[in-house]
Automatic annotation (TrEMBL):
<comment type="similarity">
    <text>Belongs to the short-chain dehydrogenases/reductases (SDR) family.</text>
</comment>
<dbReference type="Pfam" id="PF13561">
    <property type="entry name" value="adh_short_C2"/>
</dbReference>
<dbReference type="InterPro" id="IPR002347">
    <property type="entry name" value="SDR_fam"/>
</dbReference>
<keyword id="KW-0560">Oxidoreductase</keyword>
<dbReference type="InterPro" id="IPR020904">
    <property type="entry name" value="Sc_DH/Rdtase_CS"/>
</dbReference>
<dbReference type="InterPro" id="IPR036291">
    <property type="entry name" value="NAD(P)-bd_dom_sf"/>
</dbReference>
<protein>
    <submittedName>
        <fullName>Short-chain dehydrogenase</fullName>
    </submittedName>
</protein>
């Protein structure tokens, strides 16, 4: 893909992208830093080969209040402020077995990972944005918030639904003060983790193609014919983070190749 017309669009901007060592977070880090932003990213583990020009890293667990504190300290120390906050971290570790297999602990873990991590970071960094009268916040929900899947991810889907509602409320409250809050709802995105899952399923499905089709079928099919790519999500995030999206407030952008079949 060639996005050279926006080569230096983020020059002078300071961005925090959580979960930027893998998947969509990594693609967004590369996209923003490539267009001139000074970027700070976070994860629990830093890969030994993680060297991207203009990108700083802080090790932190977003599900814990002390993780939020470490990230906020690093924003002040390494970026000297913040213009763009992209809350990427999310996911599910719940077991299979449907709603009755989920304990309080599973629910709390999903809520911490998919809702409260973003809430804590927003609450800590919004005062800096309010002081400068400008800032962009992006939340990452999921199509599962409107299309909950069977088996293991009901708590995840419900937490993402809460995140989307929270995102709208935050936008309503802070848009008049120059803060732009929006959300991205990805469908099936072919990250490294998805590729590993496809490899595992291929053993019983017979081939990678059969495994991929099996995964797409479990979503009811993808009309576009393939999963999205992390770089495609990064392009949407870059647009929403840029001044080109100045009048877009309180929206959620679905990027799913048409997976959700209803309006
Ligand atoms: N992939 C999809 O198809 C899909 C679909 C819909 C929505 N989403 C959403 O999109 C977002 C990104 O998904 P992805 O699949 O691109 O993610 P991913 O490849 O699983 O990467 C997750 C990133 O977050 C970090 N991370 C995980 N847990 C963390 C924690 N407790 N504290 C700090 N960092 C943590 C990981 O590093 P460490 O493990 O080292 O901490 C990694 O950098 C998530 O919110 C996910 O729910 C994904």
């Amino acid at each position: 893909m060639n996005f050279s017309s926006y080569d230096k669009e983020f020059q002078g901007k300071r961005a925090l992208v959580t979960g930027g060592t893998q998947g969509m977070g990594l693609a967004i880090v590369r996209r923003l830093a490539g267009a001139g932003a000074k970027v700070l990213t976070t994860a629990r583990n830093i890969p030994s080969d993680y060297h991207i020009p203009n990108v700083h890293f802080v090790q932190a667990d977003i599900t814990k209040p002390e993780g939020t504190k470490a990230i906020v300290d690093a924003v002040k120390e390494k970026l000297g402020g913040i213009d763009i906050l992209i809350n990427m971290v999310g996911g599910s570790n719940s077991p299979a077995g449907g709603a009755l297999a989920l304990t309080d602990e599973h629910w709390l873990e999903e809520l911490n990972m998919n809702l409260l991590g973003s809430v804590r970071l927003d609450r800590s960094l919004l005062p800096i944005m309010l002081e400068q009268g400008k800032g962009v916040i992006i939340h990452v929900s999921s199509i599962q918030r409107t299309l909950p899947l069977y088996e293991s991810t009901l708590a995840y889907a419900a937490a993402k639904a809460a995140l989307a509602t929270y995102s709208k409320g935050l936008s309503n409250e802070f848009a008049p003060q120059g803060i732009r809050v929006n959300a991205i709802a990805p469908g099936f995105i072919q990250t490294e983790a998805a590729n590993r899952l496809i490899d595992r399923l291929a053993v019983t499905a017979g081939s990678r193609e059969a495994a991929l089709n099996q995964l797409m079928d479990s979503l009811g099919g993808i009309p576009f014919g393939r999963p999205g790519l992390p770089e495609e999500v990064a392009e949407l995030a870059a647009f929403l983070a840029s001044d080109r999206a100045a009048s877009i407030h309180g929206s959620e952008y679905v990027i799913d190749g048409g997976t959700i079949p209803t309006v």
